[in-house]
Specification:
It comes from Ixodes scapularis. The protein is α+β, with helices and mostly antiparallel strands. It is built from 8 helices and 5 strands, in the order H-H-H-E-H-E-E-E-H-E-H-H-H. Among the domains are: 103 residues, no CATH class; 32 residues. A 5-stranded antiparallel beta sheet has the order 2-3-1-5-4, with helices on both faces. Helix 1 packs antiparallel against helix 8 and helix 2 packs antiparallel against helix 8.
Length: 218
């Protein structure tokens, strides 16, 4: 019988000891040394995905406002509304014409071929290029900084998400309270596993439930 108990204890990962309180204390100390990690939707954690667009250089800056308005009316950015239409570089100003359709990723195109014969392209260079720009609007500061390296991007920071990612959502007292709740849950689980070892029969796993607003344990 003793051999069977030891085998069961080894299988369950439980030492054949009655000192459950000591295990709970050790678990509590380990929890207090831990770091709380936020669990967020994938879109908050993803790297910057890109989409190809046609751009042209603005050769006559006096035409910039007219070109932005004309392109916005004729060829709106659609799913890329988070992008600024124009970017300034050391070599001048570039403007997004429209997204590349399908697999047409040719490095150079003619302006007329991209905009059509009827569009007033005065002020634009004749050469068109294909570049990669951010596909999705940035949801975090890190995504915004990565996106801006590709193309100027608009960003409206969610203060709540920013606090979550920076680890400032909870005060030190709130963190200590949560860690205490977790320690209680670990203690309940260890006591349950100890019962399994003693009686060699399945026992319910204990847990603690506490409404955060009340601070009471149910």
């Amino acid at each position: 019988m003793e051999k069977k108990r030891k085998a069961t204890a080894e299988l369950l990962g439980v030492e054949p000891t009655n000192d459950v309180k000591k295990q709970a204390t050790d678990s509590s100390m380990e929890l207090q040394r831990s770091t709380l990690e936020p669990i967020l939707a994938d879109e908050y954690l993803r790297t910057v995905d890109t989409v190809a667009v046609y751009i042209a250089k603005i050769e006559d800056r006096r035409q910039t406002s007219r070109l932005v308005k004309s392109l916005s009316d004729a060829l709106p950015l659609g799913d890329q509304q988070h992008l600024k239409r124009v970017r300034c570089t050391g070599e001048g100003m570039d403007i997004i014409l429209h997204a590349v359709k399908g697999d047409d990723l040719t490095g150079t195109q003619t302006l007329k071929g991209v905009l059509g014969e009827t569009f007033d392209s005065q002020g634009l260079s004749a050469e068109v290029r294909v570049v990669q720009v951010p596909r999705h609007p940035p949801l975090t500061r890190a995504q915004f900084e990565q996106s801006n390296c590709l193309w100027p991007t608009q960003f409206h920071e969610d203060k709540h998400i920013a606090r979550v990612l920076s680890g400032k959502l909870f005060s030190d007292q709130e963190r200590a309270t949560m860690e205490n709740y977790m320690a209680l849950a670990v203690t309940a689980a260890q006591e349950s596993r100890a019962l399994e070892w003693r009686w060699l029969t399945p026992a319910p796993t204990g847990c603690w439930r506490s409404p955060w607003e009340m601070g009471n344990i149910l």
